[in-house]
Amino acid sequence: MNIGQAASASGVSAKMIRYYESIDLIQVAGRSEGGYRIYGQDDVHVLRFIHQSRTLGFPIEQIRLLLALWRDQHRASAQVKAIAAQHIAELDTRIAELVEMRDTLAHLARHCAGDQRPSCPILDEIARGDGPKLARRESRKLKTATLQADD
Fold it and tell me: Distance between CA atoms of 63 and 83, rounded to whole angstroms?
């Protein structure tokens, strides 16, 4: 099959297939007499593996490791689990950062009049450059208030 067909069958764009070849994530495809790339079912299977790994948020270097482990019939599943656990920890960190950003923006939006006045705490905070600190302060205030209410 040609690159367009491989792209359709795998869910990976032709551009990304070429990129994966250029960084040696996948083997360079064979060529037809006309010079077109030719892919087989095994190639499509590898591309689907990469696509699913990307969908789960794995970075390229971890995908490279996962591919090597997938191909190794004598692998220890502990290695795969360690890679997954590391990725989960990274996702948890990113989620915490996103929640902090959302909380900061929500706090600022609550304090913005949203009318015809030019003053805007959202723009003021962005210009100051220390936005996430507000969310931490607000969160601490809420925790303190909750703890005091429980006493």
Answer: 10
Task: Name the phi and psi angles at 38, rounded to 5.
Answer: -125, 130
Q: What is the CATH number of the domain that holds 36?
A: 1.10.1660.10
pLDDT in tens, 94-124: 999 999 999 999 999 999 999 999 999 999 9
Q: Which stretches of the chain are assigned E, i.e. beta strand?
A: 30-31, 37-38
Tell me how far apart the terminal alpha carbons of the chain are, to the nearest angstrom.
70
Same-domain pairing of 103 and 146: yes
From CA 98, how far away is CA 146, in angstroms rounded? 23
DSSP 28: P
For residue 117, CA distances in Å to 13, 63, 93, 127, 128 come to 48, 51, 37, 18, 20
Residue where a domain terminates, one of 18, 36, 58: 58
Q: pLDDT per residue over 20-42, tens digit each?
A: 999 999 999 999 999 899 999 99
Neighbour tally for 88: CB within 10 Å: 11
Tell which residue, 29, 73, 74, has the closest CA to residue 47: 29
